[in-house]
Amino acid sequence: MINMKERCKICQKQCDSGIWISPQFKDEKVLLFCSKDCRDKYISMKLERIKASYPKFYDKIMKSKKQ
Predict the structure, then answer these.
(1) Are strands 19-21 and 6-7 parallel, antiparallel or unpaired?
(2) Global pTM value
(3) Is the dihedral of CA 32, 34, 40, 42 positive or negative?
(4) How far is CA 59 from the centre of its chain?
């Protein structure tokens, strides 16, 4: 077992295991979340930012999500 000294991206709680999301770009680090709730909160924060900045792209994402 690997001994990790990582912190959750949302709540900053130290994690020994968790949910990983791969980075979008090569120079980014992998994102770690302690629970599904923290992961979902992070995704909803990202979607809100996309909705505010790129409303047409947000609509496209929501349409594909419904299908």
Answers:
(1) unpaired
(2) 0.71
(3) negative
(4) 19
